[in-house]
Amino acid sequence: MEFDLIDEGSYEQIMQQTVLPALEHCKREGWIRSYNPDVGQSSSTHKAAVHAAGAGLGNFHYICYESARFDELAMPGSQGRHQGLVIISHGFTEFAGKYTEMAWYFLLAGYTVCIIEYWGHGLSGRGISDPNLVWVDSYKRYVEDLAVFCQEMEAAYAGDQQVCLYAHSMGGGIAASLMETHPTLIDRAVLSSPMIAPQTGVPLRFASAVLDAACAMGMGQQKVPGHHRFKPEFDPHSVGKASPARMKWIHGQRLACSEYQTSAATYGWVQQAIALSRSILKKGLCEQVEASTLLFQAGSDSFVLPGPQERFVEQVKAGGCDINFVRIAHASHELYTMPNEILGPYVNRILDFFAQTETFSAGN
Questions:
Q1: The Serine aminopeptidase S33 domain covers which part of the protein (predicted)?
Q2: pTM listed for this prediction
Q3: Can you give the residue ranges of every domain in the chain?
Q4: How far apart are CA 298 and CA 301, in angstroms?
Q5: pLDDT averaged over the chain?
Q6: How far apart, in whole angstroms, are the C-alpha atoms of residue 344 and residue 5?
Q7: Strands 50-51 and 27-33
Q8: Is the pLDDT of residue 74 over 80?
Q9: Which residues are 86's β-sheet partners?
Q10: Does domain 10-26+55-355 have CATH number 3.40.50.1820?
Q11: How far apart are CA 360 and CA 364, in angstroms?
């Protein structure tokens, strides 16, 4: 599919004058009751509590951009026909607004876009008072919240068309678990730098033992070493391979909203990230995946491990599912923030994949 990327030289101006007003025109948001791992209710039980408003400790927030209302604007480059639904599953410390640009491209291609904000992130409920920290009681909360979100958004928007999932990093790990445990919810999935296993700096088995001990001593909600609180000053030297214009825009969103300043992991979160990894890589679960999948690996990634990504692909492929692996050699972890010369082929590949109705060979 041919489309124009947002010009990095005029990035903020285009976002402010064109993209944000268009998205505001077609925006809907709400809250859904979050899964409680202590109660262990099924997704079919907690999907009944969908609220037009009602933030709170036990709810997660979401935003939808409706393609029918977007098409009313007749934006240049818009396809003008409904293609289906794209659900976005964000990464660690992220929030819905970070995916404004990706939502724009999906809308231009004809998709309704629905973005979940996981518990402990954005405007969703939190189990910890410090807005800088991310803590979760169980990774299953994330997975079951994504499951009910997919069910609700499919019922509202998909009709007889495909449900596609775009998932980054932590959201990619959650998506992988979703596809194993709820294999019929998604038709096509893009896992972008997925957190099949986190990068902890030490072997995962050793890290797990340390984390278990720390949590047993009551340190589960304390910040792990090496993570830092939000810094209001934008450091242009910290963007690495990413687009400075995109990273400055994202930082501005964080600066404007205290709920977007989540920046550091707790012992409890890392413990659950490793537990999620162990679950994902169980061979019997990998073989349950049914959704056609496209997995992107960043060539320079300091946040997630590449080996477990490759192992996941091989185990899913061994189970007979269609899965394709793409490595982007000169890119860093957040592929959707890369300069246009990398972002263009990346987005094109995703849109072409979502537009397919047939499966591709698992040998690709």
A1: 81-336
A2: 0.94
A3: 10-26+55-355
A4: 6
A5: 93
A6: 7
A7: antiparallel
A8: yes
A9: 113, 164
A10: yes
A11: 7
